[in-house]
Design brief:
The structure holds two protein chains of two kinds. By secondary structure, chain A is of the alpha+beta class. In chain A, a hairpin with a 2-residue loop joins strand 12 and strand 13. The two termini of chain A are 52 Å apart. By secondary structure, chain B is mostly helical. Chain B has two domains: 70 residues, Rna Polymerase Sigma Factor, Chain: A (Orthogonal Bundle), CATH 1.10.1740; 75 residues, Orthogonal Bundle (Arc Repressor Mutant, subunit A), CATH 1.10.10.10. Chain B is built from nine helices and no strands. The longest helix of chain B has 22 residues. About 10% of the residues of chain B have low confidence. Classes of the chains: A alpha+beta, B mainly alpha. At the A-B interface, helix 1 and helix 2 of A face helix 1, helix 2, helix 4, helix 5 and helix 6 of B.
Amino acid sequence: MNLDEELRDTFRFRAASAPDGNTLLIAVRDRSHRADVRRRWFVVMAGLIAVATTVTVAAVRPFAAPAPQPPTTPGPTPTPTPSLPPGTVPIVLAAANISLPAFPFTPGWVPAGLGPRWTGIVGPEARLGYGYGGPKLLSLAVDTVPYDYDWEGSGQTTTAQIGKYSATVRHGTTDSGGPLFGVSWQIDDGRWLTVQSFEIPFTDTIQFARDLRPEPLSASEMPFTLALAPQGFALSLVDPYGLCLAPPTWPPQRRTSLGLCVSVSNNEYQFQPRVDTPVLMAGLVGLIQRGKSGLTLRLELADGRMLQVSTHDEYDTQQYVHISDADLERFVEGVTAR
Amino acid sequence: MQASFEEYVVTRGPTLLRFAYLLCGDRHLAEDLVQEVLVRAHRRWARIELDEPTAYLRTALVRAHLSWRRRRSSSEQVSADLPEPAAGPDFAERQAVRDELWTLLATLPKAQRTVLVLRYFEDLDVRQTAAVLGCKESTARVHAARGLAALRRNIRTTTIGETR
């Protein structure tokens, strides 16, 4: 057996020793009853507190000095501080001044039949790609550390010559049975280059790698422009759909979107009644999902695409930013889709 | 309680418990998780049952599991209360592999283990797994790759070692 089969076998075997569920219904009934009692108690207590507060305020207000009014100057709205996770960085909006980074290499030859070119970054890693989301994909990653593959190969590795460098070639198969290659080599200045190809012949993959030139390639255009951006934040991610901006002091992440992220895509999203709340913002209808660690706002654009703004869409980092509702609306109003 | 909810708990409860047990590796915690998720689902059952209750509850279990801090320290032993051993010369070897994998699975981060359970027990593909976790497909792939790599790195049993 290989590891895949062993895991299936282990899970099947262990599942048989799970609790049998004979008392599950009784336990759920009991818990549900207790939860109802607790909820009713809270409702009663909240009612009593509300009445007490109203009476107290009514009694005190005639004798109290008028409360100072906040200044009504334009500009960033002060961020309220509800109970946020420790270390949460508040967002203060300012005029956007974002320049997308150029990619450090220029292809001399590209296989035919690929989708449009895009450039981006994932933390410290620079990315160039073709055909995002399509069956044929080609990408190049440049980083100071070896590439951490997110696919498993067949286990077979070979070597290939890329100019004066010896590259390691990882072999695999795509879900539809096509060829999958990862070609990785280190250049003189210590950087690692990794070409990955999906459904592209090996000879084409190698030719693409060999014809790369160390010349900057201008960044591809975002599908939107921003009028406002978090003050002092830096780009933490750029991909074909959008970007993320995060405090520059945060440790860079190679896999995770950090900070305030905004994207425009054709992604479809299914309404989740448990967590989504309908919202109307900047004249657009959509859904907002709020959690302890952030929010995800999805708005439908006139052309059917989806504008998404999120402050935390991955569950495995402990780095949070916070944007007030008023600033979220100002930010969205400043997004212009292309 | 609504009859349809009670019927669902009786018929599908054991499936949810098996899934929860594989996620967390602890029988008591699995029962706690399933009960809590079902109590929450009960309040919205009229809406949930119109859609796909099992998919909804699977997602709810995963998210509850990932967001829970461990409420109790489990002293559960891996070998306790297991199914009756089958006879046969290979059983000891097979059992050794299962025991070692089960122990190693307990050392993986929650997200990695969850992805492996969704993939190898629930037979979900990457897209479905990412949807359950509420993350990007690339993130789900990374969790799977890292989980499998950690298992491969640490497994000592001969049969798996041969396929490295």
